[in-house]
Amino acid sequence: MSKLFTPYNLSGMQLKNRVVMAPMTRTRTMNDVPDDVVALYYAQRASAGLLITEGMPVSEEGRGYLYTPGIYNAAHVQGWRKVTDAVHAKGGRIFAQLWHVGRMSHTSIQPGNIAPVSAGTVQAVNTTVFALTESGEPGPVVPGQPRALETAEVRRVTADFVHSARLAMEAGFDGVEIMAANGFIFDQFLSSELNPRTDEYGGSVENRQRFLLETVDAISAAIGSNKVGLRISPFGRLYDLAPYEGEEEIWASIAAALGQRELAYVHLYYQPVYTQAPVPAGFKAAFRKTLGGTVIAAGGFTREIAETALEADELDLVAFGVPYIANPDLVERMQNGWPLAESDRTTYYGVTGALEKGYTDYPAWEAN
Q1: Distance (Å, whole) CA 154 – CA 67
Q2: For 185, how many CA atoms within 13 A lie in the half-sphere containing its CB?
């Protein structure tokens, strides 16, 4: 049997295969609370060894896109409980991705219409967020000019993550994944181009990674490190994240720091479409060796590429994103050699019309 379809012990949690459904924002919640349609969407895909939810803002401040379901109040817990119950009823496992976008937001969706926050005041300009346009209609807008978080506010954001992690466990999730990839708030602190701080969260490599590691440790203390995953995107270029001096050094330092922490996993996204420069030769192998624990990888995988990487011991679990949109039974299709359906890009995001369109209306494979 292909290694891709063999069970895996994830920090004491048995996964039925090594296929992971990657986190994907779908903007399907009008009131930011998951409903029965969202529960069906995840339940349809529960044959994956592990499901990771779309990014869930840990506060109103952490939101950068309209119609993304949060995890910071009692209504969110009730809504997500529908999802976890539906997934568990199908024998699935599911982690909640905790998210703060930092500067990737806009005043129109910030509490009190204030500026988004970041490590500093550098605005993201070569990108957009989904917020309210000048006419008040939902649409793509350039992120707002951010303000730099005060030192005490950085610690408050960590506390927001801890609060959301506790609520996620209350909602029945099997664990949480900290979203520290794709140019969002943690990347903004790591980057020497975006972080001009002179407090303990800026300057040296040690200081710039402090926010991330303090948050990892605080969540681990609250719910157990074996229930905590972390997603990072070394050398990523999404959302106007530019190269910066010492980039390879900081990722090597983070690998060493994470290797001292017994997390459930580290989820690497190498962004094959968006990376402007190749990842340095040997970096992936060195990162895995230094880390020592479970590695999930995402980014352009097919069954064949996944099997090759698993056999070469480059990773432990493989995350698939876009293929899961149109193929709720992706595991079965790959395992049986059935063809994959193509997804309709025009329905990837949005809440106009029927919520089910391009979301829960893709059928499982049926042999003619």
Answers
A1: 25
A2: 33
pTM listed for this prediction: 0.96
Place of tokens 């909640």: 96
Average pLDDT, whole number, for the chain? Answer: 94
| Per-residue pLDDT reduced to its tens digit, 143-202 | 999 999 999 999 999 999 999 999 999 999 999 999 999 999 999 999 999 999 999 999
d(CA 93, CA 296): 15
Q: Residue 128 in contact with residue 143, Cβ under 8 Å?
A: yes
Phi-psi region of 249 (alpha: psi -120 to 50; beta: other; left: phi over 0): alpha
pLDDT in tens, 287-308: 899 999 999 999 889 999 999 9
* Bridge-based pairing state of the strands 228-232 and 175-179: parallel
Tokens linked to 141: 């807008």
Collapsing DSSP to helix, strand or coil, 289 comes out as: helix
The CATH class for the domain spanning 3-347 reads alpha beta
Contact in structure between 111 and 131 (CB atoms under 8 Å): no
The single-letter code of the amino acid at 160 is D
8 A C-beta contact, residue 223 and residue 171: no
Cα distance between residue 267 and residue 248, in whole Å: 18
Task: List, in order, residues 6 or more apart from 125 with CB less than 8 Å away.
Answer: 142, 143, 240
Amino acid in position 334 = M
Cα-to-chain-centroid distance, residue 58: 13
Contact in structure between 166 and 152 (CB atoms under 8 Å): no
Q: Which long-range contacts (CB under 8 A, 24 or more apart) does 148-156 make?
A: 148/117, 148/118, 148/119, 148/120, 148/121, 148/197, 149/117, 149/118, 149/119, 151/199, 151/200, 151/201, 153/117, 154/201, 154/211, 155/214
Find the distance separating the first CA and the last CA of the chain, reported in whole Å.
Answer: 26
Report domain extents, the chain. Answer: 3-347
- Dihedral-angle region of residue 182 (phi above 0 means left; psi in -120 to 50 means alpha; beta otherwise): left
The residues, any chain, with a CB within 8 Å of residue 248's CB and separated by 6 or more, are: 280, 283
pLDDT of 272 strictly over 70? no
Q: What six digits make up the tokens of 68? A: 């993304």
- In the numeric block, the tokens 């190498």 are attached to 270
Extract the tokens encoding 305.
């590429």
